[in-house]
Design a protein that fits this description.
With about 450 residues, the chain is of the alpha+beta class. The protein contains eleven helices and 23 strands. The protein starts with a helix and ends with a strand.
């Protein structure tokens, strides 16, 4: 397919025919074909080991972490619950699920909380499993998680870790006729006016987060029951009914980093990394941008937050590139009743956002405005990090502006390669690329975006 498509030269076609884009779509098609061919080739180690991963000879067990992206954390969300699944000769079996707090309680002598938690997360002095995903690189965060998990008395041996978030649940329930029964409740994706979000999201938060005046055991077991009900409905159906759309959805959710994998089979993980399904901060020659945010408010504020990003370039005559990054925050909804003593469900409160902006290593911070603390820089994961803290109240707005110089100059008439990496758990913030005062592109960042700026 790649060879056939590469014979088509987009330059032989006009930009528009009868009002429809032609040249740009052909160019995009060629790029997609090239990327897909490369991905299939690079993923061969994963493809070769798939029978083993699916329990062809012996059963495999996987730890599934549920990250609540409505309380955004570095790798996609607050780790709120976990489950164990086994696969034996292709047959998937749900074993158990539980609250992450129970797993945390089974660990003794926890280390002191790292500096960001001590600084921004009130009354938390030790590092917990639920807060261990502080690195924006999923594999790095899982090293911290695994080190603590290995000391838990409730630890079980597994063959890999799979992280999912609420986007996976919503998209899957929508495919399954938009209705799943679990824990005596009916879950749908229809809009719930109490939060202006899918009903499944509100009901999960209502069941898990609302305080009650009695001891509520297994308060997060509903997540495991819901996942189990989804699997039963999907796998017990006729393959032609759901399997095609579900498979497509899994691919899309993986590309959008709502599903991430760390497999203990080295060959398989090599393929996962090649498919960009391991949530890594990638090396890149050219300009690079990754905005990573951590919600330290304790509330599910990311249900309501809206964000827009202006990525602006100013190129001097000598090729020096100065960038101004403007992040605009908006929370248009009123605050929730956060009085826990009277049983309030605290979804919307002040957004307490620890923000890290990853840019090419060696970039020089020139100016910043809008951070509650003085913004600092340091090197991490092969990038320079611009670190700050932002707060936004319900029915409020905020703006963070950062100006910095790239560590290289642009050669005359040469394009600038650019990679923007999406944060796992985010729904697709609106981006605008501006060059010397002119807007050249607007898009929603739903996946990592690699391009060349003229």
């Amino acid at each position: 397919v790649q060879q056939e498509i590469d014979q088509v030269n987009p330059d032989h076609y006009p930009k528009f025919i009868f009002g429809s884009q032609v040249k740009d779509q052909l160019t995009a098609l060629r790029l997609t074909a090239d990327q897909t061919a490369t991905a299939v080739s690079d993923a061969k180690p994963l493809i070769k080991t798939l029978p083993s991963l699916l329990g062809e000879k012996e059963a495999k067990r996987y730890l599934v972490l549920f990250q609540n992206d409505k309380e955004l954390r570095a790798t996609g969300g607050f780790i709120t619950a976990y489950a164990i699944f086994s696969i034996d000769k292709g047959i998937i079996k749900f074993e158990n699920s539980d609250d992450i707090y129970k797993l945390d309680d089974s660990i003794r002598n926890k280390p002191k909380a790292p500096a960001p938690i001590l600084k921004y997360l009130p009354k938390v002095y030790t590092l917990n499993l639920r807060d261990s995903n502080l690195s924006p690189d999923f594999l790095e965060s899982m090293k911290t998680f695994e080190d603590m998990y290995s000391r838990a008395t409730l630890k079980e041996d597994v063959d890999g870790i799979i992280a999912i978030d609420t986007h996976v649940l919503v998209s899957t329930v929508k495919i399954l006729d938009d209705q799943v029964q679990a824990g005596g409740q009916t879950f749908t994706t229809q809009n719930d006016p109490r939060c202006e979000c899918p009903q499944i999201i509100y009901e999960l938060e209502n069941d898990i987060s609302r305080p009650v005046n009695y001891i509520k055991t297994d308060r997060k077991s509903i997540i495991g029951e819901l996942i189990s009900a989804i699997m039963v409905k999907a796998l017990s159906s006729s393959p032609q009914q759901y399997w095609g759309p579900l498979f497509q959805s899994i691919i899309a959710q993986t590309q959008q980093k709502h599903i991430m994998f760390k497999l203990y089979d080295e060959q398989a993980q090599e393929g996962i990394v090649a498919l960009n399904a391991a949530g890594q901060i990638r090396p890149f020659e050219g300009d690079y941008l990754h905005i990573n945010e951590v919600n330290f408010s304790g509330a599910k504020v990311n249900i309501f937050m809206e964000e827009k990003v202006d990525n602006e370039y100013k190129v001097d005559a000598d090729g020096t590139i100065t960038k101004t990054l403007t992040i605009k925050y908006k929370n248009p909804f009123p605050p929730s009743d956060c009085n826990l003593e009277r049983g309030g469900l605290c979804l919307n409160a002040e957004y307490r956002d620890w923000i890290r902006i990853y840019v090419p290593q060696g970039s020089e911070l020139v100016d910043s405005k809008g951070s509650q603390v003085k913004m600092t820089t340091y090197d991490e994961l092969g990038k320079t990090v611009i670190d700050g803290f932002v707060t936004v109240r319900p029915k409020g707005v905020g703006t963070l502006t950062v100006t910095y110089k790239l560590p290289f100059k642009l050669e005359k008439n040469s394009p600038l390669p650019l990679l923007i990496q999406k944060q796992p758990g985010t729904a697709g913030h609106e981006y605008q690329t501006i060059i010397n005062g002119k807007t050249v592109e607007m898009f929603n960042l739903t996946t990592d975006k690699e391009t060349k700026l003229e």
